[in-house]
Write a structure and sequence with these properties.
By secondary structure, the protein is an alpha+beta fold. Helix content is 14%, strand content 35%. The protein has helices at residues 13-17, 22-33, 168-172, 176-181, 185-192, 353-358, 362-369, 373-377; strands spanning 55-57, 64-66, 69-74, 86-92, 97-103, 108-114, 117-122, 128-133, 137-141, 146-151, 157-163, 173-175, 209-210, 235-237, 244-246, 249-254, 266-272, 277-282, 288-294, 296-302, 308-313, 317-321, 326-332, 337-343, 351-352, 386-387.
């Protein structure tokens, strides 16, 4: 057994972390669903691998549990298709502390689902920030920025972390206790100014998530005297931002345009009304990582060469859609669906099938699908977004 501390479930952290109109839309769908004879079968002799599994139930995984909180992860070890992004569902009990640490190979993006969290972070230029995050808030810590997280109470905090590297946890988490525990006391005494004997009482291994005292309501002054404000803030209030409203729901997007420090990812909160359809579309510049917060939906992906796959998703489950793959989302059940979505690009891009068809000459569309001019005239003239 390694020296790494085992939690109450018997797992070490490395065990876990290493390893328009509905009528027009209906006509368009009906027309496109009936292929012409020339398109009825794949090209002769073509052989292509089946589509990869694009669903993972993160909340049903074993995870890591300790007295200060818990963490469940989905990186390429658990979810091989997710090469570009990894996710963690983390919970901190009141006062629970995710110790001081940094990530060498990945930036960290987070969305708070429940509770309140105080985060501190330091940038390479020495500028520090302490900020409080509530449900609907986002933080972004660039690669290598040192940070720590603590639950403010009175309830448990639950937040989703997304990293812009599917390997991040095995190769990219550096914890302060892990480093100090493996440094000679003589070096620590010279570096930190405390007598060598003091270090004998410090943790002998990585602490990871530990119990702590609930911080005061008003943040303490930082030890170096800096103000608790940063001129390049790490915080964005996504749920409080203005959304795009469609007949079938809403969508809030935060890219580098709205949140300049967020240079590698784009985040989205998507709300679907019962029975809604997120129209057929694809993203030409990024993979898509989805976490289902509430409600249920059915996702269908198109991988070219006559390959499609469909899965149903419920709270706590993740979908991953590769860059350029066509897809659509159907809301199912009586409860509205809320989805947290991440793209591994700081710029948001999409192309919908309805806007694409609208951007072509009528005669070309008629020839492509064998439609009459009257049928082509009924096709949508632009993107629908979320259809009711």
């Amino acid at each position: 057994m390694s020296q790494e501390k085992r939690n109450s479930s018997g797992w070490t952290r490395r065990d876990l972390l290493g390893g328009a109109s509905l009528a027009a839309a209906g006509i368009a769908a009906a027309s496109l669903a009936a292929p012409s004879p020339a398109a009825a079968a794949p090209r002769a002799g073509a052989k292509h691998a089946p589509l990869e599994n694009f669903k993972y139930d993160i909340e049903s995984s074993k995870g890591w549990f300790g007295p200060g909180g818990s963490a469940k992860e989905a990186n390429i070890e658990e979810f091989p298709i997710s090469q570009s992004m990894a996710g963690v569902s983390m919970r901190l009990k009141p006062g629970g502390l995710r110790e001081l640490h940094w990530h060498a190979v990945a930036a960290e993006w987070a969305y708070v689902i429940k509770g309140n969290v105080r985060a501190t972070v330091i940038a390479p230029n020495g500028q520090a920030e302490s900020a409080d995050f509530a449900p609907g808030d986002v933080w972004y810590f660039p690669k290598g920025h040192g940070h720590a997280l603590q639950c403010l109470g009175p309830e448990e905090a639950h937040f989703i972390l997304v990293f812009d590297d599917g390997n991040f946890s095995e190769f990219g988490t550096f914890s302060i206790t892990d480093w100090i525990a493996r440094t000679p006391p003589s070096v620590l005494a010279r570096n930190l100014g405390l007598p060598e004997a003091v270090y004998a009482s410090m943790p002998k291994e990585e602490a990871y998530i530990i119990p702590g005292r609930v911080p005061p309501a008003v943040p303490e002054q930082l030890r170096n005297g800096d103000l608790n404000e940063n001129q390049f803030p790490h915080k964005f209030r996504l749920l409080a931002s203005r959304g795009y409203v469609f007949p079938g729901g809403e969508e809030r997007i935060v890219s580098s345009k709205e949140f300049p420090i967020q240079t590698t990812l784009t985040g989205v909160i998507q709300d679907l009304k019962p029975g809604a359809l997120r129209e057929m579309h694809w993203h030409p510049n990024a993979d898509e990582w989805q976490f289902y917060i509430s409600g249920k939906s059915r996702v269908t992906i198109f991988g070219a060469h006559a390959r499609t796959a469909t899965e149903e998703f419920a709270p706590g489950q993740i979908a991953f859609i590769k860059q350029g793959f066509g897809h659509f989302v159907e809301q199912i059940g009586n409860e509205p669906t809320r989805i947290l979505i991440l793209f591994n690009s700081p710029v948001y891009e999409e192309i919908s099938i309805s806007s694409w068809l609208a951007a072509n000459p009528p005669s070309m569309i008629a020839d492509n699908f064998g439609l009459t001019k009257a049928q082509v005239a009924q096709l949508p003239k632009g993107a629908f977004g979320i259809i009711a």
